[in-house]
């Protein structure tokens, strides 16, 4: 399996994923128009994203339609999970600190 972080490091691929996230599916020509990239460049990035399991492809009369496969991002989500816990704890500590400061100093002005 390809390294998702290496794949997502490419800005054009992230832009493609963003465009697909906002749509139920786009044709290659729609992505070319939306992103201002050449058709061969978009196709190259879509091939990488498809191989990584981040997008699905279906053939239609108008061309190939691509859709985001959110389950392909599970590895990234799992990697981020401990960081979410880290920040949740830090934000809770900050909230507790602010609450204790308000109690000692009176209501905010």
UniProtKB/TrEMBL annotation:
Q: Which CDD domains match?
A: HTH_ARSR
Instruction: List the keywords (alphabetical).
Output: DNA-binding, Transcription, Transcription regulation
Instruction: Provide the species name.
Output: Nocardiopsis tropica
Supply the InterPro entries for this chain. ArsR-like_HTH, HTH_ArsR_DNA-bd_dom, HTH_MetalResp_TranReg, WH-like_DNA-bd_sf, WH_DNA-bd_sf
The name of this protein is Metalloregulator ArsR/SmtB family transcription factor
Q: Write one Pfam family the protein is assigned to.
A: HTH_5
What sequence ranges are listed for the domain HTH arsR-type? 1-102
Q: Give a yes or no for keyword Transcription regulation in this entry.
A: yes
**Span of the secretion signal?**
none
What SUPFAM superfamilies does the record tag this protein with? Winged helix' DNA-binding domain
């Amino acid at each position: 399996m390809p390294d998702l972080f290496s794949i997502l490091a490419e800005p054009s691929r992230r832009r493609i994923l963003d465009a697909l996230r906002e749509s139920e599916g786009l044709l290659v020509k729609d992505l070319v128009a939306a992103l201002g990239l050449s058709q061969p460049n978009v196709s190259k990035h879509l091939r990488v994203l498809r191989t990584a399991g981040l997008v699905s492809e279906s053939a239609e009369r108008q061309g190939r339609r691509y859709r985001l496969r959110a389950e392909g991002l599970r590895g990234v989500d799992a990697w981020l999970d401990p960081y979410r816990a880290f920040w949740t704890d830090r934000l809770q500590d900050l909230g507790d600190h602010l609450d204790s400061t308000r109690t000692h100093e009176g209501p905010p002005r």
